[in-house]
Structure formats: structure tokens, C-alpha cells
Amino acid sequence: MGGNNVANHKLKQEILAAVLAALTIALSLMIVIPVPATHGMVTLCEVGIYTSAILFGNPVGVFVGGASGFMIDVLSGYPEWCLFSLVIHGLQGLVVAALAHRASGVVRGLVLPMLAGSLVMVVGYYLATSLLFGWPAGLASIPGNLIQVGFGLVVTVTLVASLTRFNPKLSKGMIR
């Protein structure tokens, strides 16, 4: 019996991760702001990554980050970024989930993990852009990425606060 419960839990977690990744992709594709200087774009993917990572931990945070980053690039016409996005956004989800589950409160439990995840994203895309297009393009990518993660942070704090008000289980160590 115990093994069956573990298998059911794992299946539920995989389905949850897939649904959250699909929602993150849809949210991100609704608003895409192209950045011609870096052959990239600004999206709302941080909202889905941060919310998933904070509420459901890992491996959900890693999967939603990596899968959504990869698919957003493929579907929006930026395939040269998809492998970078897989790694960068996957690490972003990993970091946010790991740090969010070790802290409590809005600042330590939400904001600091998202700032760490944002640093992963901004530095990751600086490095990827520098590799593809040179360091001046890497520097040019920083302002747009800061705007993206800043907006994602603000929306996520509001969204997570609202969701935890409606479902207290979400605020007590997240659903796993």
C-alpha cells in the first residue's frame, strides 16, 4: 500500500508541474516585448516560476522554470535561447524553491528567495548574451532583465499573498 501512495503522490506532483508550466507558458506568451539589441524578449515567466517554486517547492520549481523557459523561446521564435533558458530558468526555480522553504515571512520567505532567483536570471542571461553576441550585448540585456524580474517579483508577492489567504495549507510549508 505504501508504495502505491508514493507513486500516486509523485504522479500528482508531475501533473501539477506540467499544468503550472503550461500556465506559465500561456501567461508569458500573452505579453512578449521583443528586445532587438539582444535578440531576446521580456515576458511574465517569472510570475509562474516564482509562484510555483514558492508554493510547491522542488522539483516543481525546477521543472516549471526550465520547461517554461525552453518552450517560451521555441514558441515565440527565439530558438537560439531555448537551451540557455532551460538551464537559467531551471536554476532560478531551484534557487527560489530551496530558499523559500528555509525561511518564513514575506521578506525572508518570499522576497529574498526571489531576489536570489532574479540574480541567477540576470547573471545567466548576461553570460549567455555575451557568449552569443559579445559582452556589450550582455550589458545591454541587464536593464530589460531587471525590469522583467522586478515586475515578476511584485506580481508574485501579490499573487502568493492572495492564494495563501484562500488556502491556508499553502502558507504552512507548501503543498507537496
Explain what the structure shows.
It is a single chain. With 176 residues, this protein is mainly α. The chain has one domain: Arp2/3 complex 21 kDa subunit ARPC3 (Orthogonal Bundle). The chain contains six helices and two strands; from the N terminus they run αββααααα. The protein has helices spanning 2-30, 45-56, 60-75, 82-100, 106-133, 135-166, and strands spanning 33-35, 40-42. It has a two-stranded antiparallel sheet. Strand 1 and strand 2 form a beta hairpin. Helix 2 packs parallel to helix 4 (82-100) and helix 4 runs antiparallel to helix 5 (106-133). The protein is globular and about 55 Å long. The mean pLDDT is 88. InterPro entries: ECF_substrate-spec-like. The chain crosses the membrane at residues 15-35, 47-72, 78-99, 111-134, 146-166. It comes from Levilactobacillus acidifarinae DSM 19394 = JCM 15949. Keywords: Membrane, Transmembrane, Transmembrane helix. This is ECF transporter S component.
Short recap of the structure:
The chain crosses the membrane at residues 15-35, 47-72, 78-99, 111-134, 146-166. Helix 1 runs parallel beside helix 3 (60-75) and helix 3 runs antiparallel to helix 4 (82-100).
